[in-house]
Amino acid sequence: MKQIPVKDVTPGKDNETQVYDLYAKREHIYVKYYKGFFKNLRTGAGFALLVMFFTFSWIQYDGRQAILFDLPNRQFHIFSLTFWPQDFMLLSWLLIILAFVLFFVTVFAGRLWCGYACPQFVWTWFFIWAERITEGDRNKRMRLSREPMSKEKLLRKSAKHLLWAVIAILSAVAFVGYFTPIRELIPSILSFNLGPWEMWWLGFLSVATYGNAGWLREQVCIYMCPYARFQSVMFDQDTLIISYDEKRGEKRGKRKKGTDYKAEGLGDCIDCLACVHVCPVGIDIRDGLQYECVACGACIDACDEIMDKMGYERGLVRYTTEHSLSGKQTKLFRPRLIGYFAAVLVMCSAFAYALSNRVPVEFDVIRDRGALFSEVSGNQIQNIYTIIVANKEQVDRTYRIRVEGIEGIEFASNPEVTVRSGELIDHTVRLRIDRNSIDRANSPITFVVETVDEPKVTATAESRFMAPAPSR
User: Fold this and answer.
1) Cα–Cα distance between 457 and 452 in angstroms, integer?
2) Predicted pLDDT at 2
3) How far apart are CA 281 and CA 376, in angstroms?
4) Which domains, from first to last, does the chain contain?
5) pLDDT score for 1
6) What would the mean pLDDT of 52-59 be, rounded to a whole number?
7) Which residues pair with 459 in a beta bridge?
């Protein structure tokens, strides 16, 4: 323990040193195996997430990897959609929506994200499973840790860490496979032909997964994750949380099954510590709501199993609200919850509309800065523009450019341009008009670019056409 000496400097007294302990060494948590409804729910959610994580990078779509974040080419492919750096606002928008969804879920039902979908805990439970099948259940693991080194202990510990390392490496490969095509990455790994960035991220993610899910576990949630710290500001007395029913459970005490324990002044809690032994963060839910609790429901399943064995009613530890525990009516619909729901609904609708109406071409116009205009043969006025076209589709496209806003304006250059998939080009356009056909020195015009072939894609950009001031 870290100790800090403190001197007593009171006048007239001999200086004495007092020692205060500010740090307690972490105690390893041995999670007990259990069964129950919430475990099945969490296992199903975790299994689905793991399956998606490990398999989605293998899905092919239209001749390429369906989900690929191609950083070198600055393209982000998600099935039929391709996003570019210019679409960063969509990503920001999506993150804001997800944040509000998280707020809504937290206000309604506490830390469901942590207990059922957080990657840290999905992998932590994965590693706990690997620990259990190699070293045994809780009591056997505790005995094994206390025993001196032996052949059996060496084999079991080695098998556990080997399995941990395999899971960590496979997780790293799956993650990097979303940035480097997985069907190219695997052969490169097997032939030891990796680039420096792939080697770095494979090594870093393997070590990080092994360390976070194998060794740190609940320490990440308690000390590193900010969500545990600010979640309390979103809770209210109607938030669904995991709680121990103190009125029903107290006074705690051991008793034999079938005895009249109420006559002895005892409550339903038999003080078996089953809820503590299954908790992945090592807390006692009977001590009240704690920021370390990740709302995984393990304590509920463990307590319900004990209640069934004793013949008591389930629900001594359950999902409930503070109002319900105090005998008051829980308010399901409340202003903050409705506000979050309305905000999420509006933002999701707007995001879906923006995504469905997203134009897969980037188009901009820059006037020639060398001259406002020039006079050419035939008594014509000419303006020069640089057209910037970026093709954000997965096929090559030919675009036709036209101008609206002035009658009689003509192109003195090719109005069509072909842009390959993922390419951005600059195309020079010359516009001319008879001097007698324009009566303004500064006329607004609109450039329209549209695809020649189907399906039609159209984009517009505003500019100005400059000419000599008309004589009065």
Assistant:
1) 9
2) 46
3) 80
4) 236-325 (no CATH), 361-466 (2.60.40.10)
5) 44
6) 96
7) 449
Could you identify the residue written with the tokens 């590193």? 224
Q: Are 15 and 9 contacting, i.e. CB atoms less than 8 angstroms apart? A: yes
Q: Please, what's the b/e burial string for 228-253 (b: 16 or more CB within 10 A of its CB; e: otherwise)?
A: beebeebbeebbbbbbbbeeebeeee
Phi, psi (rounded to 5 degrees) for 239: -75, 135
CB of 358 closer than 8 Å to CB of 397: no
Instruction: Answer yes or no: are the C-beta atoms of 152 and 334 closer than 8 Å.
Output: no
Distance CA 128, CA 143 (A): 17
pTM comes to 0.83
Q: What are phi and psi of 388, to 5 degrees?
A: -105, 120
Lowest mean pLDDT among 70-79, 169-178, 226-235, 313-322: 226-235
Q: How far apart are CA 256 and CA 249, in angstroms?
A: 16
387-427 pLDDT tens trace: 999 888 878 899 999 999 998 899 999 999 999 888 889 99
Q: How many residues does the chain have?
A: 472
